[in-house]
Write a structure and sequence with these properties.
Order of helices and strands: HEEHEHEHEHHEEHEHEHEHEHEHEEEE
Strand content: 15-25%
Oligomer: single chain
Helix content: 25-40%
Distance between the termini: 28 Å
Amino acid sequence: MSITPHDERFMAAAIRLSRWHLGRTATNPSVGCLIVRDGVIVGRAVTALSGRPHAETQALAEAGALARGATAYVTLEPCSHHGRTPPCSEALIAYGVARVVISVTDPDPRVSGRGIAMLREAGIEVDAGVLEAEGRHSLASYLTRQTKNRPYVTLKLAVSADGMIGREGAGQVAITGPEARAQVQALRAETDAILVGIGTAITDDPLLTVRTPGLESQSPIRIVLDPSLALPLTSKLVETAREVPVIVVASEEVWPLSSDAEGLPPSALPGISPTGGEIGKRRDPNSPVSDGDGFALRQDVGQGANPDPISPLVGEMPGRAEGGASPADMDSRRAALEASGVEVLYCNPYHPEVLLPALATRGISSLLVEGGAKTARLFLEAGLVDRIQLYQAPVVIGERGIESPLDATDIPSGFAHTGTLMFGEDRLDEYERGL
Protein backbone atom coordinates (compact mmCIF):
# COMPACT_ATOMS: atom_id res chain seq x y z
CA MET A 1 0.00 0.00 0.00
CA SER A 2 1.36 3.45 -0.86
CA ILE A 3 1.71 6.11 1.81
CA THR A 4 -1.27 8.47 1.99
CA PRO A 5 -1.94 11.85 3.65
CA HIS A 6 -4.08 9.80 6.04
CA ASP A 7 -0.94 7.90 7.12
CA GLU A 8 1.07 11.10 7.52
CA ARG A 9 -1.65 12.67 9.66
CA PHE A 10 -1.69 9.77 12.11
CA MET A 11 2.11 9.51 12.16
CA ALA A 12 2.37 13.23 12.93
CA ALA A 13 0.04 12.64 15.89
CA ALA A 14 2.17 9.71 17.06
CA ILE A 15 5.31 11.86 16.87
CA ARG A 16 3.66 14.61 18.92
CA LEU A 17 2.63 11.97 21.45
CA SER A 18 6.20 10.64 21.65
CA ARG A 19 7.45 13.99 22.95
CA TRP A 20 5.36 13.74 26.12
CA HIS A 21 7.98 11.70 27.96
CA LEU A 22 11.24 13.03 26.49
CA GLY A 23 14.00 12.81 29.07
CA ARG A 24 11.93 10.58 31.35
CA THR A 25 12.26 7.07 29.85
CA ALA A 26 15.75 6.19 31.12
CA THR A 27 17.84 4.48 28.41
CA ASN A 28 14.80 3.62 26.29
CA PRO A 29 13.56 6.05 23.63
CA SER A 30 10.28 7.88 24.11
CA VAL A 31 8.12 6.27 21.40
CA GLY A 32 4.57 7.12 20.38
CA CYS A 33 2.08 4.54 19.10
CA LEU A 34 -1.46 4.84 17.74
CA ILE A 35 -3.80 1.96 16.90
CA VAL A 36 -6.23 3.08 14.20
CA ARG A 37 -9.26 1.17 12.92
CA ASP A 38 -11.53 2.50 10.17
CA GLY A 39 -10.02 5.96 10.56
CA VAL A 40 -10.63 6.09 14.32
CA ILE A 41 -7.92 5.96 17.02
CA VAL A 42 -8.81 3.04 19.30
CA GLY A 43 -5.55 2.91 21.28
CA ARG A 44 -2.72 5.31 21.98
CA ALA A 45 0.31 5.36 24.23
CA VAL A 46 3.81 6.73 24.81
CA THR A 47 6.69 4.80 26.37
CA ALA A 48 6.05 4.78 30.12
CA LEU A 49 8.12 6.73 32.62
CA SER A 50 11.37 4.87 33.36
CA GLY A 51 11.11 3.19 29.94
CA ARG A 52 8.64 0.34 30.52
CA PRO A 53 6.15 -0.76 29.41
CA HIS A 54 6.73 0.17 25.80
CA ALA A 55 4.27 2.25 23.80
CA GLU A 56 3.04 -0.59 21.56
CA THR A 57 1.98 -2.93 24.35
CA GLN A 58 0.11 -0.15 26.16
CA ALA A 59 -1.68 1.03 23.01
CA LEU A 60 -2.64 -2.55 22.10
CA ALA A 61 -4.00 -3.18 25.58
CA GLU A 62 -6.14 -0.05 25.30
CA ALA A 63 -7.45 -1.09 21.88
CA GLY A 64 -8.15 -4.67 22.99
CA ALA A 65 -10.16 -6.67 20.45
CA LEU A 66 -10.42 -3.60 18.20
CA ALA A 67 -6.72 -4.01 17.36
CA ARG A 68 -7.49 -7.00 15.13
CA GLY A 69 -7.34 -5.84 11.52
CA ALA A 70 -6.25 -2.33 12.56
CA THR A 71 -3.19 -0.27 11.60
CA ALA A 72 -0.49 0.56 14.14
CA TYR A 73 1.45 3.81 13.73
CA VAL A 74 4.78 3.64 15.58
CA THR A 75 7.51 6.30 15.64
CA LEU A 76 10.32 3.72 16.00
CA GLU A 77 10.61 0.17 14.65
CA PRO A 78 9.04 -2.26 17.17
CA CYS A 79 11.60 -4.25 19.12
CA SER A 80 12.22 -7.87 18.18
CA HIS A 81 14.42 -9.09 21.05
CA HIS A 82 13.63 -10.42 24.49
CA GLY A 83 14.78 -8.01 27.18
CA ARG A 84 12.98 -7.33 30.42
CA THR A 85 9.77 -7.50 28.40
CA PRO A 86 8.71 -9.63 25.40
CA PRO A 87 9.23 -8.14 21.91
CA CYS A 88 6.68 -5.55 20.81
CA SER A 89 6.64 -7.18 17.36
CA GLU A 90 5.27 -10.35 18.96
CA ALA A 91 2.57 -8.33 20.70
CA LEU A 92 1.49 -6.70 17.42
CA ILE A 93 1.30 -10.14 15.81
CA ALA A 94 -0.62 -11.63 18.73
CA TYR A 95 -3.24 -8.87 18.65
CA GLY A 96 -3.77 -9.43 14.94
CA VAL A 97 -3.00 -6.00 13.52
CA ALA A 98 -3.13 -5.95 9.73
CA ARG A 99 -0.61 -3.19 9.04
CA VAL A 100 2.23 -1.40 10.82
CA VAL A 101 3.44 2.03 9.73
CA ILE A 102 6.87 3.06 11.05
CA SER A 103 8.65 6.40 10.99
CA VAL A 104 12.26 5.43 11.88
CA THR A 105 14.11 2.11 11.63
CA ASP A 106 15.88 1.29 14.91
CA PRO A 107 19.72 1.44 14.64
CA ASP A 108 20.08 -0.85 17.68
CA PRO A 109 21.76 -3.96 16.19
CA ARG A 110 19.45 -6.17 18.26
CA VAL A 111 16.47 -4.70 16.42
CA SER A 112 17.51 -3.01 13.17
CA GLY A 113 15.35 -4.53 10.44
CA ARG A 114 14.52 -7.60 12.53
CA GLY A 115 11.30 -6.15 13.89
CA ILE A 116 10.11 -5.36 10.38
CA ALA A 117 11.12 -8.83 9.14
CA MET A 118 9.26 -10.52 12.00
CA LEU A 119 6.08 -8.60 11.22
CA ARG A 120 6.25 -9.35 7.49
CA GLU A 121 6.90 -13.03 8.10
CA ALA A 122 3.65 -13.08 10.09
CA GLY A 123 1.78 -11.68 7.08
CA ILE A 124 1.52 -8.11 8.38
CA GLU A 125 1.96 -5.30 5.88
CA VAL A 126 4.74 -2.91 6.90
CA ASP A 127 5.52 0.58 5.59
CA ALA A 128 8.57 2.38 6.96
CA GLY A 129 10.01 5.88 6.56
CA VAL A 130 6.78 7.83 7.02
CA LEU A 131 7.65 11.39 8.16
CA GLU A 132 11.14 10.06 8.80
CA ALA A 133 12.80 13.47 9.19
CA GLU A 134 10.28 14.48 11.84
CA GLY A 135 10.59 11.11 13.53
CA ARG A 136 14.39 11.31 13.65
CA HIS A 137 14.14 14.78 15.15
CA SER A 138 11.94 13.54 18.00
CA LEU A 139 14.29 10.57 18.55
CA ALA A 140 17.51 12.57 18.16
CA SER A 141 18.88 11.78 21.62
CA TYR A 142 18.30 8.04 21.34
CA LEU A 143 19.66 7.87 17.79
CA THR A 144 22.81 9.80 18.73
CA ARG A 145 23.58 7.55 21.69
CA GLN A 146 23.01 4.45 19.54
CA THR A 147 25.05 5.56 16.52
CA LYS A 148 27.74 7.81 18.05
CA ASN A 149 28.07 6.36 21.55
CA ARG A 150 27.46 9.74 23.16
CA PRO A 151 24.59 12.02 24.21
CA TYR A 152 22.93 14.48 21.88
CA VAL A 153 24.37 17.87 22.87
CA THR A 154 22.40 21.12 22.90
CA LEU A 155 24.25 24.38 23.54
CA LYS A 156 22.04 27.13 24.95
CA LEU A 157 23.25 30.73 24.95
CA ALA A 158 21.47 33.94 25.92
CA VAL A 159 23.19 36.93 24.32
CA SER A 160 22.63 40.62 25.02
CA ALA A 161 22.25 43.28 22.34
CA ASP A 162 25.95 44.11 22.73
CA GLY A 163 27.04 40.48 22.32
CA MET A 164 27.56 39.54 25.97
CA ILE A 165 26.40 36.56 28.02
CA GLY A 166 27.10 38.05 31.44
CA ARG A 167 29.11 40.54 33.46
CA GLU A 168 32.38 39.78 35.24
CA GLY A 169 31.98 39.46 38.98
CA ALA A 170 28.23 40.01 38.87
CA GLY A 171 27.01 36.44 39.33
CA GLN A 172 23.82 35.58 37.48
CA VAL A 173 22.67 38.39 35.20
CA ALA A 174 19.14 38.30 33.75
CA ILE A 175 19.48 38.71 29.99
CA THR A 176 16.23 37.21 28.72
CA GLY A 177 12.73 37.87 30.00
CA PRO A 178 10.33 35.56 31.85
CA GLU A 179 8.82 34.01 28.72
CA ALA A 180 12.22 32.88 27.40
CA ARG A 181 13.30 31.65 30.82
CA ALA A 182 10.13 29.54 31.04
CA GLN A 183 11.01 27.98 27.69
CA VAL A 184 14.47 27.07 29.00
CA GLN A 185 12.84 25.40 31.99
CA ALA A 186 10.79 23.27 29.57
CA LEU A 187 14.00 22.34 27.71
CA ARG A 188 15.64 21.26 30.97
CA ALA A 189 12.61 19.11 31.79
CA GLU A 190 13.06 17.00 28.65
CA THR A 191 16.85 16.69 28.95
CA ASP A 192 18.75 13.96 30.81
CA ALA A 193 21.61 16.13 32.08
CA ILE A 194 22.78 19.74 32.22
CA LEU A 195 26.44 20.81 32.26
CA VAL A 196 28.36 23.92 33.34
CA GLY A 197 31.99 24.76 34.04
CA ILE A 198 33.36 25.27 37.54
CA GLY A 199 33.69 29.01 36.93
CA THR A 200 29.96 29.33 36.34
CA ALA A 201 29.17 27.01 39.24
CA ILE A 202 31.16 29.16 41.66
CA THR A 203 30.33 32.62 40.30
CA ASP A 204 26.60 32.09 39.71
CA ASP A 205 25.92 29.42 42.36
CA PRO A 206 23.07 28.04 40.20
CA LEU A 207 20.60 25.29 41.08
CA LEU A 208 20.21 24.08 37.47
CA THR A 209 16.89 22.44 38.34
CA VAL A 210 13.45 22.67 36.74
CA ARG A 211 11.42 25.25 38.63
CA THR A 212 8.21 25.12 36.60
CA PRO A 213 5.38 24.14 38.98
CA GLY A 214 4.52 20.49 38.47
CA LEU A 215 7.72 19.66 36.60
CA GLU A 216 10.20 19.87 39.46
CA SER A 217 10.62 16.09 39.52
CA GLN A 218 11.93 16.24 35.93
CA SER A 219 15.09 18.12 36.87
CA PRO A 220 18.10 16.80 34.94
CA ILE A 221 21.31 15.39 36.40
CA ARG A 222 23.62 18.34 37.12
CA ILE A 223 27.23 18.04 35.84
CA VAL A 224 30.13 20.38 36.67
CA LEU A 225 33.50 20.36 34.89
CA ASP A 226 35.57 20.65 38.06
CA PRO A 227 39.17 19.48 37.49
CA SER A 228 40.43 20.39 40.96
CA LEU A 229 37.32 19.52 43.00
CA ALA A 230 36.80 23.19 43.81
CA LEU A 231 32.98 23.09 44.03
CA PRO A 232 32.13 24.60 47.45
CA LEU A 233 30.32 22.37 49.92
CA THR A 234 28.04 25.34 50.63
CA SER A 235 26.98 25.68 47.00
CA LYS A 236 23.36 25.10 46.04
CA LEU A 237 24.45 22.21 43.86
CA VAL A 238 26.13 20.33 46.69
CA GLU A 239 23.44 21.17 49.24
CA THR A 240 20.77 19.64 46.95
CA ALA A 241 22.83 16.70 45.62
CA ARG A 242 20.75 14.14 47.51
CA GLU A 243 17.57 15.51 45.94
CA VAL A 244 18.81 15.91 42.35
CA PRO A 245 22.01 14.07 41.31
CA VAL A 246 25.24 16.01 40.85
CA ILE A 247 28.35 14.73 39.04
CA VAL A 248 31.63 16.63 39.21
CA VAL A 249 34.11 15.75 36.48
CA ALA A 250 37.59 15.82 38.02
CA SER A 251 41.00 15.63 36.39
CA GLU A 252 42.91 12.37 36.60
CA GLU A 253 45.60 14.41 38.37
CA VAL A 254 43.43 14.43 41.50
CA TRP A 255 42.78 10.64 41.46
CA PRO A 256 42.29 9.69 45.14
CA LEU A 257 45.16 8.32 47.21
CA SER A 258 42.72 5.80 48.67
CA SER A 259 41.96 4.20 45.30
CA ASP A 260 42.47 0.47 44.79
CA ALA A 261 45.49 1.20 42.59
CA GLU A 262 47.40 2.93 45.41
CA GLY A 263 46.78 6.43 44.14
CA LEU A 264 47.72 5.89 40.51
CA PRO A 265 45.64 7.99 38.08
CA PRO A 266 43.63 6.18 35.39
CA SER A 267 46.29 6.86 32.73
CA ALA A 268 48.73 4.79 34.79
CA LEU A 269 46.40 1.84 35.22
CA PRO A 270 46.93 -1.20 32.96
CA GLY A 271 45.02 -1.16 29.70
CA ILE A 272 43.60 2.35 30.01
CA SER A 273 44.74 5.07 27.65
CA PRO A 274 45.27 8.54 29.12
CA THR A 275 43.05 10.01 26.38
CA GLY A 276 40.99 6.96 25.48
CA GLY A 277 38.72 6.96 28.49
CA GLU A 278 38.93 7.03 32.26
CA ILE A 279 36.95 5.11 34.82
CA GLY A 280 34.58 6.76 37.27
CA LYS A 281 35.32 5.50 40.76
CA ARG A 282 31.75 5.58 42.05
CA ARG A 283 28.50 4.78 40.30
CA ASP A 284 24.93 4.43 41.46
CA PRO A 285 24.30 0.65 41.43
CA ASN A 286 20.85 1.29 39.97
CA SER A 287 22.11 3.39 37.07
CA PRO A 288 22.13 1.77 33.64
CA VAL A 289 25.51 0.75 32.25
CA SER A 290 26.75 -0.87 29.10
CA ASP A 291 28.62 -4.18 28.82
CA GLY A 292 31.07 -4.82 31.64
CA ASP A 293 32.06 -1.59 33.36
CA GLY A 294 30.69 0.27 30.36
CA PHE A 295 33.79 2.35 29.69
CA ALA A 296 35.05 0.79 26.47
CA LEU A 297 34.96 4.09 24.66
CA ARG A 298 34.94 4.72 20.94
CA GLN A 299 36.85 7.62 19.43
CA ASP A 300 34.46 8.34 16.54
CA VAL A 301 32.06 10.13 18.83
CA GLY A 302 31.26 13.27 16.94
CA GLN A 303 30.97 14.73 13.53
CA GLY A 304 34.02 16.94 13.18
CA ALA A 305 35.36 15.93 16.59
CA ASN A 306 38.90 17.09 17.31
CA PRO A 307 41.13 14.02 17.91
CA ASP A 308 43.89 16.13 19.50
CA PRO A 309 44.00 16.95 23.21
CA ILE A 310 42.27 20.19 24.10
CA SER A 311 44.22 22.52 26.36
CA PRO A 312 42.80 23.32 29.80
CA LEU A 313 40.59 26.39 29.83
CA VAL A 314 42.33 29.56 30.91
CA GLY A 315 41.52 30.25 34.55
CA GLU A 316 40.33 26.70 35.18
CA MET A 317 43.60 24.81 35.66
CA PRO A 318 43.81 21.70 37.84
CA GLY A 319 43.88 22.28 41.56
CA ARG A 320 47.56 21.50 42.17
CA ALA A 321 48.37 24.62 40.21
CA GLU A 322 45.95 26.63 42.34
CA GLY A 323 47.70 27.29 45.59
CA GLY A 324 49.68 24.03 45.50
CA ALA A 325 46.97 21.84 47.00
CA SER A 326 48.42 18.50 48.05
CA PRO A 327 47.12 15.04 47.07
CA ALA A 328 45.87 14.64 50.64
CA ASP A 329 43.90 17.88 50.34
CA MET A 330 42.35 16.61 47.11
CA ASP A 331 41.43 13.33 48.74
CA SER A 332 39.78 15.26 51.56
CA ARG A 333 37.78 17.36 49.05
CA ARG A 334 36.65 14.25 47.24
CA ALA A 335 35.56 12.57 50.47
CA ALA A 336 33.62 15.66 51.56
CA LEU A 337 31.83 15.95 48.21
CA GLU A 338 30.93 12.27 48.17
CA ALA A 339 29.70 12.48 51.75
CA SER A 340 27.31 15.19 50.55
CA GLY A 341 25.94 12.91 47.84
CA VAL A 342 28.00 14.18 44.90
CA GLU A 343 29.45 11.66 42.44
CA VAL A 344 33.05 12.28 41.43
CA LEU A 345 33.87 11.13 37.90
CA TYR A 346 37.55 10.98 36.96
CA CYS A 347 37.47 11.76 33.27
CA ASN A 348 39.50 14.57 31.71
CA PRO A 349 37.14 17.57 31.76
CA TYR A 350 38.89 19.09 28.74
CA HIS A 351 38.31 16.08 26.49
CA PRO A 352 34.60 16.09 25.64
CA GLU A 353 35.28 13.32 23.10
CA VAL A 354 36.10 11.15 26.13
CA LEU A 355 33.61 12.59 28.62
CA LEU A 356 30.53 12.23 26.42
CA PRO A 357 30.84 8.44 25.92
CA ALA A 358 31.43 8.12 29.67
CA LEU A 359 28.13 9.91 30.26
CA ALA A 360 26.41 7.70 27.69
CA THR A 361 27.36 4.62 29.72
CA ARG A 362 25.36 6.14 32.56
CA GLY A 363 22.26 6.17 30.36
CA ILE A 364 22.51 9.87 29.53
CA SER A 365 21.17 10.38 26.03
CA SER A 366 20.75 14.16 25.99
CA LEU A 367 22.97 16.87 27.43
CA LEU A 368 22.30 20.59 27.75
CA VAL A 369 25.42 22.77 27.94
CA GLU A 370 24.48 26.04 29.66
CA GLY A 371 27.68 27.78 30.64
CA GLY A 372 29.88 29.56 30.66
CA ALA A 373 31.68 31.00 27.66
CA LYS A 374 34.79 28.83 28.06
CA THR A 375 32.80 25.63 28.40
CA ALA A 376 30.64 26.53 25.39
CA ARG A 377 33.76 27.19 23.34
CA LEU A 378 35.25 23.87 24.45
CA PHE A 379 32.34 21.87 23.04
CA LEU A 380 32.10 23.99 19.89
CA GLU A 381 35.79 23.62 19.09
CA ALA A 382 35.57 19.87 19.64
CA GLY A 383 32.77 19.67 17.05
CA LEU A 384 30.50 17.96 19.57
CA VAL A 385 27.48 20.27 19.58
CA ASP A 386 24.42 18.95 17.74
CA ARG A 387 21.98 21.81 18.34
CA ILE A 388 22.43 25.48 19.18
CA GLN A 389 19.69 27.48 20.86
CA LEU A 390 20.67 31.14 20.58
CA TYR A 391 18.54 33.61 22.50
CA GLN A 392 19.05 37.26 21.58
CA ALA A 393 17.72 39.91 23.95
CA PRO A 394 17.50 43.74 23.78
CA VAL A 395 19.30 44.10 27.14
CA VAL A 396 22.68 45.88 27.07
CA ILE A 397 25.36 44.59 29.46
CA GLY A 398 27.96 47.32 28.95
CA GLU A 399 31.27 47.45 30.83
CA ARG A 400 32.92 44.27 32.11
CA GLY A 401 30.72 42.19 29.86
CA ILE A 402 31.63 38.58 29.10
CA GLU A 403 31.71 38.15 25.34
CA SER A 404 29.59 35.40 23.82
CA PRO A 405 31.55 32.58 22.12
CA LEU A 406 29.32 32.98 19.06
CA ASP A 407 26.46 34.97 17.60
CA ALA A 408 24.09 34.65 14.67
CA THR A 409 26.78 35.82 12.23
CA ASP A 410 29.37 33.14 13.03
CA ILE A 411 27.44 29.91 13.48
CA PRO A 412 29.86 27.02 12.72
CA SER A 413 29.65 25.33 9.35
CA GLY A 414 27.51 22.21 9.23
CA PHE A 415 24.60 23.76 11.09
CA ALA A 416 21.31 24.58 9.40
CA HIS A 417 18.97 27.27 10.69
CA THR A 418 15.80 25.39 11.62
CA GLY A 419 13.55 28.11 12.99
CA THR A 420 12.97 31.39 14.79
CA LEU A 421 10.60 32.00 17.68
CA MET A 422 9.81 35.10 19.72
CA PHE A 423 9.32 34.99 23.49
CA GLY A 424 8.26 38.45 24.53
CA GLU A 425 11.06 40.74 23.32
CA ASP A 426 13.56 37.88 23.07
CA ARG A 427 14.35 36.07 19.83
CA LEU A 428 15.29 32.38 19.73
CA ASP A 429 17.14 31.06 16.69
CA GLU A 430 17.75 27.33 16.53
CA TYR A 431 20.46 25.62 14.49
CA GLU A 432 21.00 21.88 14.07
CA ARG A 433 23.39 19.44 12.48
CA GLY A 434 21.97 16.58 10.46
CA LEU A 435 21.67 13.29 12.34
